[in-house]
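An instance follows:
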Amino acid sequence: MGGFAAVVASVVASSACGGSPALHAAQVGDRSGLHAAIAAREGAGTLSNGEAAAIAEAVVRRELVSAAPADASDRIRDALPCAHELDAALADRMRVHDAAGADAALARIAGRGLSLGDARTYAEDADARWRAVGARGLVRRDDREARLRALADDSPAVRRQAARAARDAADAADLGLLADAARLDPEPIVRTEAVRAIAELPASGGDGAVNALRDLWTTGDDGLREDIALAWASPALWDAGGREALRVLVASGHGPGAIEAAAAVLRHGNGNGGREGAGEVLDAAAGQLARAIATGSRATRLQALAEAPLDRTDLREAVRTASSDDDLEVRVGALSRLSRLLHGPGASAPDATAIAALEGLAQPGSAVASRARFALAAAGDRRVQSWIEADLTASAAEDRRGAATALASLGVSARAATLLSDADPSVRVRSACTIVMAARATH
């Protein structure tokens, strides 16, 4: 029996034990039996969030070890948010030395099941995917030479993990090569990781880091510029020149990077140091966001709506204006922000006007029904639950997954358990992770 088949056989044999019919069906991969068992429990109203989470964990474990090698990496990526709870299953999958096994190892690092010290042992592996696992562990001071070699590896997967290791290592001596990677690497994700690593360099290298990021700004695309703005706002760079770089950008920049810069300045607020002109730069930042909300592209408007701090009257008014916009996506984005503003005695009630408007957009047949329902769930409006549950059978996988997230937001994640037997394996795993994470949040 081959390595992959042996892992599947051993896990199935060890997990096919007692428990509820739903749990047993989940453990052995009986989707029709699972569907029937969950339907019966939900019909009787006896399926708790905790038991749903136990069944969900069993579903994901089964998916991780039984997925065909060609699909296994996709399932591991689907399960990444609940990697901590699934460490044993990921460790089993990691026993197979293939691409999915390497992905399982990286997921275990993210879930804190695999130490960076253990990951480091793969740094010289002949397989680039496993070499990437090793590169992620190169965080010690005496790993620097190996880390820099990994930053120049032929494999973008290795270079990405080396940049992530550099972020943890926070060695000011890495600045030059990180700046080169951020400017020259052909892979956008590696450039992004390099900028994020620069943001973590210690203050002793701060001036150089800020200047390096200024050089990168001139040639970077919108995505990289957003990362650069976030880097300038980082604790390591804010007082080492990042604040001044953002002040200039807020005054004269445009696009997603300038929006991120404006939001960063406003988040720091009085952290602008009581400096002369601090009020003007805060006003300029708010103006940048208000203009973007009013006149930007849809993507820009949604970004600015999500970022705008509503403790400022001018930005609240910009959001209120957008809440009646002709673009329904923009309208939902604005109403979603307003719905979480508290009003009434003791500032304890959500904005009733925004809630009512969202309920109108959440009606069956609305072009933005799923987004409006999610916004209402985030605001804790239980009146929308029946509509959300209707989305559990929507034709679009994205809508079904969104329904699971919305039900978890309402505190009734067990109502999404029917998705654990969905025909789409990605829906099964992602929804299962949503239910597992909801249980984590209650402990």
Observations:
- The two ends are 41 Å apart (CA to CA).
- Residues 4-18, 273-277 have pLDDT under 50 and may be disordered.
- Residues 117 and 296 are 47 Å apart (CA to CA).
